[in-house]
Amino acid sequence: MIHTTSHTTSRIQLAFVLLAVCASVLFTGCKESHLSADGPYVLYSTTGTTANIIQVNKQGDISSETVDLTTLKNREFHVTDHHGDFPFTVKLHAVTRPAWNYHLADKTFVMSDPHGRLDCVVSLLQGNGVIDRDLHWSFGANHLMVIGDVFDRGKDVIQIFWLLYKLEAEAEAAGGRLSFLLGNHEPMVLGGRMRYAEEKYEELAHELNMDYRDLVGPNSELGRWLATRNTIEVSDSLLFVHAGLGAAFYDRNLDPDTVNQEISRALFMTGKERRARSPLTKFLYGGDGPIWYRGMVRDDAKYYPLSTDTLNLLLKRYHVERIIVGHTTFDDVSEFYNGRVIGVNVDNRKNMKEKLGRALLIENNQYIVVSDNGALRPIE
User: Fold this and answer.
1) CATH number of 101-379
2) Cα(226)–Cα(191) distance, integer angstroms
Protein backbone atom coordinates (compact mmCIF):
# COMPACT_ATOMS: atom_id res chain seq x y z
CA MET A 1 0.00 0.00 0.00
CA ILE A 2 1.19 3.52 -0.79
CA HIS A 3 0.42 6.19 1.78
CA THR A 4 0.71 9.77 0.58
CA THR A 5 0.82 13.13 2.31
CA SER A 6 1.49 16.55 0.85
CA HIS A 7 2.20 20.09 1.89
CA THR A 8 2.21 21.55 -1.66
CA THR A 9 0.80 18.86 -3.93
CA SER A 10 0.25 19.98 -7.52
CA ARG A 11 -2.13 18.39 -10.01
CA ILE A 12 0.80 16.73 -11.75
CA GLN A 13 2.14 15.33 -8.50
CA LEU A 14 -1.34 14.10 -7.54
CA ALA A 15 -1.61 12.32 -10.88
CA PHE A 16 1.77 10.72 -10.23
CA VAL A 17 0.58 9.43 -6.85
CA LEU A 18 -2.65 8.06 -8.32
CA LEU A 19 -0.71 6.25 -11.02
CA ALA A 20 1.54 4.81 -8.36
CA VAL A 21 -1.40 3.57 -6.32
CA CYS A 22 -2.99 1.94 -9.37
CA ALA A 23 0.30 0.29 -10.28
CA SER A 24 0.65 -0.92 -6.70
CA VAL A 25 -2.77 -2.58 -6.71
CA LEU A 26 -2.19 -4.27 -10.04
CA PHE A 27 1.34 -5.39 -9.22
CA THR A 28 0.89 -6.68 -5.68
CA GLY A 29 -2.25 -8.49 -6.71
CA CYS A 30 -0.38 -10.86 -9.01
CA LYS A 31 2.84 -11.70 -7.14
CA GLU A 32 4.29 -11.93 -3.67
CA SER A 33 5.92 -8.72 -2.52
CA HIS A 34 9.69 -8.62 -1.93
CA LEU A 35 9.61 -5.11 -0.49
CA SER A 36 11.38 -4.42 2.80
CA ALA A 37 12.65 -1.35 4.65
CA ASP A 38 14.22 0.99 2.12
CA GLY A 39 14.96 4.64 1.48
CA PRO A 40 14.39 7.43 1.88
CA TYR A 41 14.50 8.46 -1.75
CA VAL A 42 14.53 12.27 -1.90
CA LEU A 43 13.43 13.40 -5.37
CA TYR A 44 13.43 17.05 -6.39
CA SER A 45 10.71 18.48 -8.62
CA THR A 46 11.55 20.16 -11.91
CA THR A 47 10.19 23.42 -10.50
CA GLY A 48 12.87 23.45 -7.81
CA THR A 49 10.34 24.22 -5.08
CA THR A 50 9.27 20.81 -3.77
CA ALA A 51 10.66 17.36 -3.09
CA ASN A 52 8.99 13.97 -3.02
CA ILE A 53 10.16 11.70 -0.20
CA ILE A 54 9.56 8.00 -0.78
CA GLN A 55 10.25 5.42 1.90
CA VAL A 56 9.40 1.77 2.57
CA ASN A 57 8.90 0.42 6.08
CA LYS A 58 9.89 -3.08 7.20
CA GLN A 59 6.38 -4.36 6.45
CA GLY A 60 6.82 -3.31 2.82
CA ASP A 61 4.41 -0.36 2.93
CA ILE A 62 5.41 2.56 0.71
CA SER A 63 4.95 6.14 1.89
CA SER A 64 5.15 9.14 -0.44
CA GLU A 65 5.26 12.69 0.88
CA THR A 66 5.60 15.93 -1.05
CA VAL A 67 7.21 18.75 0.90
CA ASP A 68 8.37 22.29 0.34
CA LEU A 69 12.17 22.55 -0.06
CA THR A 70 12.37 25.06 2.77
CA THR A 71 11.37 22.29 5.20
CA LEU A 72 14.23 19.97 4.24
CA LYS A 73 17.11 21.90 5.78
CA ASN A 74 16.47 20.82 9.35
CA ARG A 75 14.61 17.61 8.69
CA GLU A 76 15.94 14.32 10.06
CA PHE A 77 15.36 11.22 7.97
CA HIS A 78 15.13 7.90 9.77
CA VAL A 79 16.99 4.98 8.19
CA THR A 80 17.17 1.27 9.09
CA ASP A 81 18.36 -1.88 7.36
CA HIS A 82 15.86 -4.11 5.52
CA HIS A 83 14.97 -5.92 8.76
CA GLY A 84 14.43 -2.67 10.66
CA ASP A 85 17.80 -2.95 12.44
CA PHE A 86 20.79 -0.53 12.67
CA PRO A 87 18.69 2.64 12.97
CA PHE A 88 20.20 6.06 12.42
CA THR A 89 19.10 9.51 11.33
CA VAL A 90 20.53 11.66 8.58
CA LYS A 91 20.19 15.33 7.64
CA LEU A 92 20.85 16.74 4.19
CA HIS A 93 24.03 18.73 3.67
CA ALA A 94 25.71 20.67 0.87
CA VAL A 95 27.11 18.41 -1.85
CA THR A 96 30.40 19.26 -3.54
CA ARG A 97 33.12 17.29 -5.28
CA PRO A 98 35.89 16.33 -2.84
CA ALA A 99 39.52 17.04 -3.62
CA TRP A 100 41.17 14.12 -5.40
CA ASN A 101 44.68 14.90 -4.08
CA TYR A 102 45.36 15.34 -0.36
CA HIS A 103 47.76 14.44 2.44
CA LEU A 104 47.72 11.08 4.16
CA ALA A 105 45.98 11.11 7.54
CA ASP A 106 47.53 9.58 10.63
CA LYS A 107 45.22 6.62 10.07
CA THR A 108 43.57 5.55 6.82
CA PHE A 109 41.00 2.75 6.88
CA VAL A 110 40.35 1.15 3.48
CA MET A 111 37.45 -1.12 2.55
CA SER A 112 35.59 -1.92 -0.66
CA ASP A 113 32.56 -3.47 -2.34
CA PRO A 114 29.97 -3.57 0.47
CA HIS A 115 27.24 -4.42 -2.09
CA GLY A 116 24.13 -3.59 -0.12
CA ARG A 117 25.09 -5.38 3.12
CA LEU A 118 24.71 -2.82 5.89
CA ASP A 119 25.33 -5.39 8.62
CA CYS A 120 28.78 -6.09 7.18
CA VAL A 121 29.59 -2.39 7.00
CA VAL A 122 28.47 -1.64 10.55
CA SER A 123 30.28 -4.66 12.00
CA LEU A 124 33.57 -3.77 10.31
CA LEU A 125 33.51 -0.06 11.12
CA GLN A 126 32.41 -0.53 14.72
CA GLY A 127 34.94 -3.31 15.28
CA ASN A 128 37.76 -1.00 14.23
CA GLY A 129 36.68 2.19 15.97
CA VAL A 130 35.62 4.09 12.86
CA ILE A 131 32.03 4.50 14.11
CA ASP A 132 30.52 4.14 17.57
CA ARG A 133 27.61 2.03 18.78
CA ASP A 134 25.14 4.66 17.54
CA LEU A 135 26.72 4.73 14.06
CA HIS A 136 28.35 8.13 14.52
CA TRP A 137 31.85 8.96 13.30
CA SER A 138 34.45 8.15 15.97
CA PHE A 139 37.61 8.19 13.83
CA GLY A 140 38.66 11.74 14.63
CA ALA A 141 40.84 13.50 12.06
CA ASN A 142 41.46 10.23 10.21
CA HIS A 143 40.33 8.93 6.82
CA LEU A 144 37.82 6.26 5.76
CA MET A 145 38.22 5.17 2.13
CA VAL A 146 35.46 3.05 0.52
CA ILE A 147 36.55 1.91 -2.94
CA GLY A 148 33.24 1.56 -4.74
CA ASP A 149 30.36 -0.82 -5.33
CA VAL A 150 27.54 -0.21 -2.90
CA PHE A 151 24.89 -1.03 -5.51
CA ASP A 152 23.65 -4.58 -6.23
CA ARG A 153 23.56 -8.00 -4.54
CA GLY A 154 22.28 -6.82 -1.14
CA LYS A 155 19.07 -5.36 0.29
CA ASP A 156 20.47 -2.27 2.01
CA VAL A 157 21.98 -0.31 -0.86
CA ILE A 158 20.30 3.01 -0.12
CA GLN A 159 20.90 2.65 3.61
CA ILE A 160 24.66 2.26 3.06
CA PHE A 161 24.72 5.32 0.83
CA TRP A 162 22.93 7.34 3.49
CA LEU A 163 25.33 6.11 6.17
CA LEU A 164 28.34 7.18 4.08
CA TYR A 165 26.62 10.48 3.25
CA LYS A 166 26.03 11.11 6.97
CA LEU A 167 29.54 10.05 8.00
CA GLU A 168 31.05 12.35 5.38
CA ALA A 169 29.58 15.38 7.17
CA GLU A 170 30.49 14.05 10.63
CA ALA A 171 34.06 13.29 9.54
CA GLU A 172 34.50 16.78 8.11
CA ALA A 173 33.23 18.31 11.37
CA ALA A 174 35.86 16.29 13.25
CA GLY A 175 38.66 17.28 10.90
CA GLY A 176 38.61 13.89 9.17
CA ARG A 177 37.64 12.63 5.75
CA LEU A 178 35.36 10.05 4.19
CA SER A 179 35.95 9.08 0.56
CA PHE A 180 33.59 7.02 -1.54
CA LEU A 181 34.93 6.21 -5.00
CA LEU A 182 32.75 5.08 -7.87
CA GLY A 183 32.92 1.40 -8.76
CA ASN A 184 31.54 -0.39 -11.79
CA HIS A 185 28.17 -1.17 -10.20
CA GLU A 186 27.28 2.48 -9.61
CA PRO A 187 27.20 3.35 -13.33
CA MET A 188 25.58 0.00 -14.09
CA VAL A 189 22.51 0.75 -11.99
CA LEU A 190 22.46 4.48 -12.74
CA GLY A 191 22.60 3.58 -16.43
CA GLY A 192 19.66 1.19 -16.15
CA ARG A 193 21.38 -2.21 -15.80
CA MET A 194 19.66 -4.05 -12.94
CA ARG A 195 21.06 -7.52 -13.61
CA TYR A 196 22.57 -7.94 -10.13
CA ALA A 197 20.02 -5.96 -8.12
CA GLU A 198 17.73 -7.55 -5.57
CA GLU A 199 14.12 -7.91 -6.73
CA LYS A 200 12.87 -5.37 -4.19
CA TYR A 201 14.37 -2.45 -6.12
CA GLU A 202 12.68 -3.11 -9.43
CA GLU A 203 9.48 -4.01 -7.61
CA LEU A 204 9.50 -0.66 -5.83
CA ALA A 205 10.03 1.14 -9.12
CA HIS A 206 7.23 -0.89 -10.71
CA GLU A 207 4.82 0.05 -7.94
CA LEU A 208 5.72 3.70 -8.41
CA ASN A 209 5.37 3.42 -12.20
CA MET A 210 8.99 4.53 -12.61
CA ASP A 211 12.36 3.21 -13.74
CA TYR A 212 14.53 2.46 -10.73
CA ARG A 213 17.34 4.60 -12.10
CA ASP A 214 15.06 7.64 -11.75
CA LEU A 215 14.82 7.06 -8.00
CA VAL A 216 18.58 7.62 -7.73
CA GLY A 217 19.00 9.86 -10.76
CA PRO A 218 20.40 13.39 -11.11
CA ASN A 219 17.24 14.92 -9.61
CA SER A 220 17.59 12.94 -6.39
CA GLU A 221 19.70 13.85 -3.36
CA LEU A 222 21.74 10.64 -3.51
CA GLY A 223 22.10 11.01 -7.28
CA ARG A 224 23.51 14.51 -6.82
CA TRP A 225 25.92 13.16 -4.21
CA LEU A 226 27.02 10.26 -6.42
CA ALA A 227 27.54 12.62 -9.36
CA THR A 228 30.26 14.39 -7.35
CA ARG A 229 32.15 11.27 -6.25
CA ASN A 230 35.61 10.69 -7.65
CA THR A 231 36.93 7.65 -9.49
CA ILE A 232 40.61 8.13 -8.61
CA GLU A 233 42.10 9.75 -5.53
CA VAL A 234 45.72 10.21 -4.48
CA SER A 235 46.81 10.53 -0.86
CA ASP A 236 50.52 11.34 -0.79
CA SER A 237 52.19 8.04 -1.80
CA LEU A 238 48.93 6.10 -2.35
CA LEU A 239 46.58 5.94 -5.33
CA PHE A 240 43.07 4.55 -4.83
CA VAL A 241 40.92 3.26 -7.70
CA HIS A 242 38.14 0.69 -7.87
CA ALA A 243 39.49 -1.85 -10.36
CA GLY A 244 42.94 -0.90 -11.61
CA LEU A 245 45.06 0.91 -14.19
CA GLY A 246 46.61 -0.86 -17.16
CA ALA A 247 48.88 -0.20 -20.11
CA ALA A 248 45.99 1.24 -22.13
CA PHE A 249 45.34 3.72 -19.34
CA TYR A 250 49.03 4.66 -19.15
CA ASP A 251 49.18 5.21 -22.92
CA ARG A 252 46.43 7.85 -22.70
CA ASN A 253 48.39 9.94 -20.19
CA LEU A 254 45.29 10.90 -18.23
CA ASP A 255 45.32 13.03 -15.12
CA PRO A 256 42.94 11.99 -12.29
CA ASP A 257 40.87 15.18 -12.48
CA THR A 258 40.06 14.50 -16.15
CA VAL A 259 39.05 10.93 -15.31
CA ASN A 260 36.88 12.00 -12.39
CA GLN A 261 35.08 14.68 -14.37
CA GLU A 262 34.48 12.52 -17.45
CA ILE A 263 33.18 9.53 -15.49
CA SER A 264 30.75 11.86 -13.71
CA ARG A 265 29.52 13.47 -16.92
CA ALA A 266 28.37 10.11 -18.25
CA LEU A 267 27.30 8.55 -14.94
CA PHE A 268 23.57 8.60 -15.67
CA MET A 269 23.88 7.62 -19.34
CA THR A 270 23.13 4.18 -20.74
CA GLY A 271 25.99 2.03 -21.98
CA LYS A 272 25.08 2.87 -25.56
CA GLU A 273 25.10 6.59 -24.82
CA ARG A 274 28.50 6.35 -23.12
CA ARG A 275 30.04 4.53 -26.07
CA ALA A 276 28.68 7.16 -28.45
CA ARG A 277 29.67 10.17 -26.33
CA SER A 278 33.40 10.16 -27.08
CA PRO A 279 36.36 7.77 -27.44
CA LEU A 280 37.53 8.81 -23.97
CA THR A 281 34.17 8.05 -22.33
CA LYS A 282 33.98 4.74 -24.14
CA PHE A 283 37.45 3.81 -22.88
CA LEU A 284 36.87 4.90 -19.28
CA TYR A 285 33.68 2.84 -19.04
CA GLY A 286 35.17 -0.12 -20.92
CA GLY A 287 37.03 -3.24 -19.83
CA ASP A 288 40.42 -1.48 -19.82
CA GLY A 289 39.10 1.49 -17.87
CA PRO A 290 39.67 2.18 -14.16
CA ILE A 291 36.35 0.79 -12.94
CA TRP A 292 36.66 -2.58 -14.75
CA TYR A 293 40.32 -3.43 -15.47
CA ARG A 294 41.50 -6.54 -13.54
CA GLY A 295 45.00 -6.93 -14.98
CA MET A 296 46.69 -5.54 -11.86
CA VAL A 297 45.53 -8.54 -9.84
CA ARG A 298 44.81 -11.26 -12.44
CA ASP A 299 47.39 -12.89 -14.67
CA ASP A 300 45.00 -14.62 -17.12
CA ALA A 301 45.71 -13.46 -20.67
CA LYS A 302 42.10 -12.31 -21.12
CA TYR A 303 42.65 -9.62 -18.48
CA TYR A 304 45.72 -8.17 -20.24
CA PRO A 305 47.88 -8.47 -17.11
CA LEU A 306 50.03 -5.49 -16.22
CA SER A 307 53.78 -5.84 -16.66
CA THR A 308 56.11 -4.78 -13.86
CA ASP A 309 57.68 -2.19 -16.16
CA THR A 310 54.32 -0.56 -16.87
CA LEU A 311 53.43 -0.61 -13.19
CA ASN A 312 56.67 1.24 -12.48
CA LEU A 313 55.76 3.81 -15.11
CA LEU A 314 52.31 4.30 -13.60
CA LEU A 315 53.72 4.71 -10.10
CA LYS A 316 56.23 7.26 -11.39
CA ARG A 317 53.65 9.22 -13.39
CA TYR A 318 51.30 9.63 -10.43
CA HIS A 319 54.14 10.05 -7.89
CA VAL A 320 52.93 7.18 -5.70
CA GLU A 321 54.42 4.06 -4.18
CA ARG A 322 51.34 1.84 -4.02
CA ILE A 323 47.99 1.43 -5.76
CA ILE A 324 45.08 0.08 -3.71
CA VAL A 325 42.10 -1.48 -5.50
CA GLY A 326 38.82 -3.32 -4.86
CA HIS A 327 36.59 -4.96 -7.52
CA THR A 328 38.21 -8.40 -7.83
CA THR A 329 37.26 -10.71 -4.96
CA PHE A 330 39.91 -12.64 -3.05
CA ASP A 331 39.78 -14.93 -0.02
CA ASP A 332 41.59 -12.29 2.01
CA VAL A 333 43.19 -8.88 1.59
CA SER A 334 45.97 -9.61 -0.92
CA GLU A 335 49.18 -8.01 -2.19
CA PHE A 336 50.75 -8.09 -5.65
CA TYR A 337 54.02 -6.88 -7.18
CA ASN A 338 55.75 -7.16 -3.79
CA GLY A 339 53.09 -5.10 -2.09
CA ARG A 340 53.02 -2.25 -4.58
CA VAL A 341 49.43 -3.22 -5.46
CA ILE A 342 47.00 -4.24 -2.71
CA GLY A 343 43.55 -5.73 -3.33
CA VAL A 344 41.10 -5.22 -0.47
CA ASN A 345 37.95 -6.80 -1.89
CA VAL A 346 36.77 -10.02 -0.21
CA ASP A 347 33.54 -11.95 0.28
CA ASN A 348 32.45 -9.63 3.07
CA ARG A 349 29.72 -11.81 4.53
CA LYS A 350 31.87 -14.94 4.53
CA ASN A 351 34.93 -13.20 5.94
CA MET A 352 32.88 -11.47 8.62
CA LYS A 353 31.57 -14.84 9.77
CA GLU A 354 35.00 -16.51 9.65
CA LYS A 355 36.87 -13.54 11.18
CA LEU A 356 39.18 -13.21 8.17
CA GLY A 357 40.68 -10.08 6.61
CA ARG A 358 38.14 -7.50 5.49
CA ALA A 359 39.98 -4.20 5.23
CA LEU A 360 43.30 -2.41 5.47
CA LEU A 361 44.49 -0.01 8.16
CA ILE A 362 47.40 2.28 7.21
CA GLU A 363 49.13 3.85 10.20
CA ASN A 364 52.69 5.04 10.79
CA ASN A 365 53.72 3.67 7.39
CA GLN A 366 52.45 0.22 8.39
CA TYR A 367 49.86 -1.66 6.37
CA ILE A 368 47.76 -3.85 8.63
CA VAL A 369 45.08 -6.32 7.51
CA VAL A 370 42.08 -6.10 9.83
CA SER A 371 39.00 -8.21 10.54
CA ASP A 372 35.82 -7.17 12.33
CA ASN A 373 37.79 -7.59 15.58
CA GLY A 374 40.76 -5.43 14.65
CA ALA A 375 44.31 -6.15 13.50
CA LEU A 376 45.23 -9.55 12.03
CA ARG A 377 48.65 -9.20 10.39
CA PRO A 378 50.93 -6.67 8.71
CA ILE A 379 51.62 -6.37 4.98
CA GLU A 380 55.34 -5.80 4.55
Assistant:
1) 3.60.21.10
2) 13
